[in-house]
């Protein structure tokens, strides 16, 4: 077993044999989840939030739940039409990851005093993110493997990885540690998507044009989501990091540029 949980450090054959396994998944998550109920170390102290900060964090967590629910629904649906057993096994591990993410986010909302998370999510959900979820699940319902992997394991995972990593750097200690565990999972999910589509694009270059069209369709929803999330977190416009640039750079690794 390679001593890394970063798929980008593995060669293609080793990547497929390693990442498409529950053994690799278990060893990876044990390293950063063992002894951390709900992804947080016992005894980690809460910091006092102002009411404005608390409300902003709750709204942000509501939208994280929308994204994680989209990934949970999509990854579970994709198992039925995955092209090989290795992909099915990997997606099964991703379903577990996405379910855990949703659980810890809901738990964090309850810690912040939210009595009915489902009602709050319904009220506070980002419209752009809801449209993204709807489009992703259309690809899954159509059993379109390439579009589903691209929309979920490249675009959605890049979106979440970019936002969560930034937020973990500025959040209160409890939220930050929870998010760092999620980011570690998202890195694996991105690696799977990039590897799978990278091989397919080499074998069928014409696929690039179709996926690039999907990217152009979804980019505006992603960028709107970034802007709304930073606003919810109270980041002033002049102080906002270039999350859109980070996202576009990540997607560009597969040759998809604006």
Task: Give an overview of the whole structure.
This protein has 258 residues and is mainly alpha-helical. The chain has helices at residues 12-19, 22-33, 51-78, 85-111, 117-124, 127-141, 145-168, 173-203, 207-232, 243-252. It has one domain (12-26, 48-252): Up-down Bundle (Ferritin), CATH 1.20.1260.10. The chain is built from ten helices and no strands. Helix 3 packs antiparallel against helix 4, helix 3 packs parallel to helix 6 and helix 3 packs antiparallel against helix 7. It is globular. It starts with 11 loop residues before the first helix and ends in a 6-residue tail after the last helix. The relative contact order is 0.14. The model has no long low-confidence stretch (mean pLDDT 90).
Which helices and strands appear, and what pairs or packs with what?
Blueprint: H1 12-19, H2 22-33, H3 51-78, H4 85-111, H5 117-124, H6 127-141, H7 145-168, H8 173-203, H9 207-232, H10 243-252
Helix pairs in contact: 3-4, 3-5, 3-6, 3-7, 4-8, 6-7, 6-9, 7-8, 7-9, 7-10
Question: Summed up, what is this model?
Answer:
The protein has 258 residues and is mostly helical. Helix content is 73%, strand content 0%. It has helices at residues 12-19, 22-33, 51-78, 85-111, 117-124, 127-141, 145-168, 173-203, 207-232, 243-252.
Tags for this model:
Ferritin, mainly alpha
Distance between the termini: 38 Å
User: What radius of gyration results from the CA coordinates?
Assistant: 18 Å
Named CATH topology: Ferritin
- Characterize the overall form: globular
Q: Name the CATH superfamily assignment.
A: Ferritin, core subunit, four-helix bundle
Mean pLDDT: 90
- CATH C-level class is Mainly Alpha
Q: How many individual domains?
A: 1
Oligomer: single chain
Range of helix content: over 70%
């Amino acid at each position: 077993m390679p001593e890394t949980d970063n798929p980008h450090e593995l060669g293609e054959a080793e990547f497929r044999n390693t990442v498409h396994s529950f053994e690799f998944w278990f060893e990876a998550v044990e390293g950063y989840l063992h002894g951390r109920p709900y992804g947080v170390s016992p005894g980690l102290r809460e910091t006092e939030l102002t009411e404005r900060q608390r409300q902003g964090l709750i709204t942000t967590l509501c939208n994280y739940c929308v994204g994680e629910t989209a990934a949970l629904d999509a990854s579970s649906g994709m198992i039925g039409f995955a092209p090989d057993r290795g992909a099915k096994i990997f997606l099964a591990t991703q379903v577990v990851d996405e379910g855990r993410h949703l659980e810890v986010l809901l738990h964090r909302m309850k810690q912040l005093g939210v009595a009915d998370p489902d009602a709050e999510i319904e009220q506070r959900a980002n419209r752009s993110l809801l449209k993204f979820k709807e489009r992703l699940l259309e690809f899954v319902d159509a059993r379109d493997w390439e579009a589903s992997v691209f929309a979920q394991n490249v675009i959605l995972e890049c979106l979440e990885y970019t936002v969560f990593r930034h937020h973990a750097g500025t959040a209160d200690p409890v939220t930050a540690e929870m998010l760092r565990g999620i980011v570690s999972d998202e890195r694996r999910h991105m690696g799977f998507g990039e590897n799978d589509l990278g091989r397919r694009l080499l074998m069928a270059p014409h696929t690039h044009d179709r996926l690039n069209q999907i990217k152009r369709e979804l980019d505006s929803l992603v960028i709107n989501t970034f802007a709304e999330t930073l606003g919810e977190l109270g980041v002033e416009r002049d102080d906002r990091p270039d999350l859109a640039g980070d996202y576009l750079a990540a997607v560009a690794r597969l040759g998809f540029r604006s």
